Each structure stands twice: as C-alpha cells, then as structure tokens.
C-alpha cells in the first residue's frame, strides 16, 4: 500500500468498522465523498475484504477455545482437509502450517465434552491424528490490521 492516505483509511476502518464516513473523513483529512470513493476502490481491489461484528464467545455459549493440530495418517492421501472440515461450525479457522503437523485449527465449543465430540468428528471426517491445546485465557485477539509503513 503506497498511498499514505489509503493506509490511514485502512487503519481507521480496521480499528472501527462502524465509523461513519464523516468520522473517517475527519481522521484522514478528506471529504466524505472522497473517503467513500476510496473505500469503494479499496473494496474492489481486495484490500478491504469485508466488515464483521466481534461477538463474545461466552455470550453465544462457546467459552472454550482450543488449537488442534492435525496430521494426516497417510501423507500420500489427497489433501482436501479444509474442504472436509468446513461443515464443522466449531472450527473458526483452519491454517496450513509448517512443521510436523499439516494444519492448525482454532475451535470454540461450549464444554470439554463438546471438544471431545468435535475431535471425534474431525477424526471421522479426515484420516488424521490430532494434538489439542486448550486455551486457558486470551489476552488479545482480533487486533486491528494496520498497514505497514512503506520505506
């Protein structure tokens, strides 16, 4: 991102996706119509990919978070793990990783028995071994994604 105004605009939207065009305009020093045009361009070019609400996991009955590493039992098997696990709503993120495991899943469930059921469902859906790490406390997540400054 080479335009410093675009970078500031992206930073502001990342911090507060509900900011009005007028608020954004005041932060970046442009008119509201100029901000609106830039936002549309940033959306069309794929820099801004969407807007979302952050929901309290506890409020929706999913207070237990865990990371689950998965490793295929047969390395020669077709690698369609993300597609095979997509139907599991408790899987919030699926990352391809380097290391001994092939994927790292971030999951949220209600209770330890729910986590056990989810692990069983994962093993049923794909032929993998799993290694689970339960999250005890989260200090921060969903931090604003602010563009790096260009040299």
What can you see in these coordinates?
This protein is α+β, with helices and mostly antiparallel strands. It folds into two domains: 4-44, Arc Repressor Mutant, subunit A; 64-134, Alpha-Beta Plaits. Helix content is 34%, strand content 19%. The chain contains five helices and four strands. A hairpin with a 6-residue loop joins strand 2 and strand 3. The longest helix has 14 residues, at 112-125. The N and C termini lie close together (11 Å).
CATH superfamily of the largest domain: Lrp/AsnC effector binding domain/regulation of amino acid metabolism (RAM) domain
Report how far the terminal alpha carbons are from each other: 11 Å
The CATH class of the largest domain is identified as Alpha Beta
Structurally, the number of domains stands at 2
In short:
This protein is of the alpha+beta class. Helix content is 34%, strand content 19%.
Features:
5 helices, 4-stranded antiparallel sheet, 2 domains, single chain, 19% strand, 151 residues, Alpha-Beta Plaits
Write the layout of secondary structure elements.
Elements: H1 4-15, H2 21-28, H3 32-44, E1 64-72, H4 81-85, E2 91-96, E3 103-109, H5 112-125, E4 128-134
Antiparallel strand pairs: 1-3, 1-4, 2-3
Helix pairs in contact: 2-3
């Amino acid at each position: 991102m080479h335009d410093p105004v675009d970078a500031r605009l992206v930073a502001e939207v990342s911090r507060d996706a509900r900011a009005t065009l007028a608020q954004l305009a005041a932060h970046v020093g442009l008119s509201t119509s100029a901000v609106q045009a830039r936002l549309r361009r940033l959306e069309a070019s794929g820099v801004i990919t969407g807007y979302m609400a952050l929901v309290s996991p506890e409020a929706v009955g999913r207070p237990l978070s865990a990371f689950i590493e998965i490793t295929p039992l047969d390395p020669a098997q077709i690698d369609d793990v993300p597609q095979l696990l997509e139907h599991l709503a408790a899987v919030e993120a699926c990352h391809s990783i380097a290391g001994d495991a092939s994927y790292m899943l971030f999951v949220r469930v209600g209770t330890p028995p729910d986590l056990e059921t989810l692990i069983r469902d994962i093993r049923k859906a794909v032929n993998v071994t799993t290694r689970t790490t339960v999250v005890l406390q989260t200090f921060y997540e969903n931090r604003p994604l602010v563009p790096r400054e260009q040299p």
